[in-house]
Write the structure tokens for this entry.
Amino acid sequence: MADTIGRITVPAPVQSGAKFPLVSLYGYGMTRDWKIVEHRFGELATLSVQRYAVGAGARRFQFAKPDLDPCDRADLLNFYDQVQGPYQSFIYPAPNDDRQTFTNFTVIFDAPPLSITELQNRAQTGLTFLEILDPAKAPAYAVSSVVTRFPTDALAQALASEVQIIIPLVHIKVRTGGVPDIYFSDRRAVFSGFPGAPSPTTFLPRLIGIGAPGTGDVIMSQSIDGRAENVSFKFGNADRALSALVNDCAIDFAQIDLSFFHVNTGTLIQLWKGVILSWQIDGSAVMSVQCSDGLYPITQAYPPRTVSRQCWKPFNTAILPGYTPCPYSTAGSGGDPTSCDYFYTSANGCLAHGMSQYFGGHPEQPQSVVIKDNGTGIIGGFFRSTVT
């Protein structure tokens, strides 16, 4: 079953099914990036560092064959054209440690373009293949407990351990009706027991970076003066699935929350929740999203529209399915049934149509005010004349 982001179907990677035609000689290898995050606290003599294992990256295979004869060179170029560079995946038989047997991996070319050095009687090249992980083998986790920002005593003790594995989780709920909730992480993982989500829920590997704007690796910063907390997210958009998402629905002011799953204890830490203020897609493989917490909306000037004596509601017209702000056909009577001049007491306005309770403007009601004239009377303000 294909992955979906909202109502957008994520295009599946194209698999060629072809097998790499050359055999790597001795000197081959495999590397894997184990991402580590350092947490520094204290200073001077009390400075301490705690390291968290974020997770294992994909494997990279180094192909080693320093001497390519004309036949090998032709086979390599034809194969590269066949799989269209890094576009299609293929099978790479990686040599095992015994140098006799092989293990097949699904890979793509890591760094295009293909570069070949031509010598007098041979050719040389260096290739790196990037493993394509099988979605069916994504790890599954179960949420055993949920905390909101502040850890329990048991979790605080577990967080002091030297070995930590923490998975960031992002949940987005857009305002457009009928769009399913969106779940992102920095890896593909399946969770059961995630609050408010169906069980199990698959988190798609789209999260590239988290951080407050202009603060480097800082996720967010708090201030005691009441300012809002701003957080920036970066999501992968190489397949343009997120571009299709923003064309399908409005993500402005969508709800977004950031949680961390502590693998060691099965605890979900609900750290932060806010709204999406803006987003940017510039043609690159990254989509940037700027967010702020719930304090942001209450700092804005309201009402958002200009105070006017004229009503803003379209006369007897539905502006959303099931919502007619001026329902004359069911709630009004009198006046011209086909038009309105959008004033309160005008000849063909709200009162004339019997729709006073639905008026969307601000009617002015003149009132008289009586004040005392400080230029009259005696010392102490007694016996002053009144002015109406």
About this structure: The CA atoms of residues 172 and 182 lie 5 Å apart. Helices lie at 70-82, 153-159, 241-248, 295-298, 328-331. The first strand starts at residue 4 and ends at 5.
